[in-house]
Design brief:
The protein is mostly beta strands. The protein has no helices and 11 strands. The strands form 2 sheets. Strands 2, 4, 5, 6, 9, 10 and 11 form a 7-stranded mixed sheet that branches. It has a 4-stranded antiparallel sheet with strand order 1-3-8-7, with no helix packed on it. β5 and β6 form a beta hairpin.
């Protein structure tokens, strides 16, 4: 089992940048496939990034990375847009996380961090 804690969210103007972090507990962090999802108000949770996969809406602007030595997953978000406003969640499971992965198929989640982009 793995526990996930996100940080780094906040309020930023359109065009700005934020870097989210997800700290994981446990000695098997490197064994998990990690990813980011987000959920905007009154919308379903959606895939953002994992490995080399990115949602079309964030390609070229967001970069996912991980540091296994620090048990940490990152999401660098550049050129932010108001439509990126959402709660961002770190996710983990044993199998690949790809754009078509349903959130119901992911067993481990962080508590989420709010990202608000003003116009």
């Amino acid at each position: 089992q793995v526990q996930l804690v996100e940080s780094g969210g906040g309020l930023v103007q359109a065009g700005g940048s934020l870097r989210l972090s997800c700290a994981a507990s446990g000695r098997t962090f490197s064994s998990y496939v990690m990813g980011w999802f987000r959920q905007a108000p009154e919308k379903e949770r959606e895939f953002v990034a994992s490995g080399t996969y990115y949602a079309d809406s964030v390609k070229g602007r967001f970069t996912i990375s991980r540091d296994n030595a620090k048990n940490t997953l990152y999401l660098q978000m550049n050129s932010l847009k108001p439509e990126d406003t959402a709660v961002y969640y770190c996710a983990a499971r044993w199998r690949a996380i790809v754009p078509g992965t349903s959130p119901s198929e992911v067993p481990y989640w962080g508590q989420g961090t709010q990202v608000t982009v003003s116009s």
